[in-house]
Amino acid sequence: MAAVVLDASTILSALFPDEPGRMSEIIALIGREGALVPPIWPAEIVNGVWLGIRRDRVDRDESITALERLNRLSITVVELNLPDYAGEVLSLALRHGLSVYDACYLHLARSRALPLVTRDRRLQVAARSENVALA
């Protein structure tokens, strides 16, 4: 069983050398605990890497190697159904001024009673407001 919900911002900040995140710490956390992510996570990760490469923030080959390492970690994509999106996710997004994407992470963490790992300040504030622990 996974012990955390992992936001894409955490992985992306660790991939870019100009960000404060450190990939080794995140990989260690996922290796120990395992992680759950909503269905938008893979697309967010690849899109973020693509943008980083286009903006010369990260090397293409290093990014591909990092993504291959991520594929070997215990990260489980959890499907959300339309009632989740139409009801709880939308409600969380509206209540906290979040994107629907960020509300998906909050919903997953809250519904599974798991801590959320995120570097997104607005999402951290929303998590605290919803009594979701931050890891």
What's the total count of β strands? 4
Listing every helix as H and every strand as E from the N terminus to the C terminus, the arrangement reads: EHHEHHEHHEH
Give the helix/strand class: alpha/beta
Distance between the termini: 16 Å
How much β-strand is present in the residues?
Answer: 5-15%
**Average of the residue pLDDT scores:** 88
The share of residues in helices is 55-70%
**CATH top level?**
Alpha Beta
Q: Under the CATH scheme, which architecture would be assigned? A: 3-Layer(aba) Sandwich
- What do we call the CATH topology? Rossmann fold
Specify the number of helices. 7
Main beta-sheet strand count, sense and barrel state: 4 strands, parallel
Fourth-level CATH superfamily: 5'-nuclease
Global morphology:
globular
Strand order of the largest sheet: 3-2-1-4
The tally of structural domains comes to 1
How big is the Rg?
14 Å
Point out poorly predicted stretches: none
Commentary on this structure:
- Helix 1 packs parallel to helix 3.
- It is built from seven helices and four strands; from the N terminus they run βααβααβααβα.
- It has one domain (4-129): 5'-nuclease (Rossmann fold, 3-Layer(aba) Sandwich), CATH 3.40.50.1010.
- It is α/β, with parallel strands linked by helices.
Task: Give the tags.
8% strand; four-stranded parallel sheet; 7 helices; alpha/beta; Rossmann fold; 135 residues
Précis, in short:
It is built from 7 helices and 4 strands.
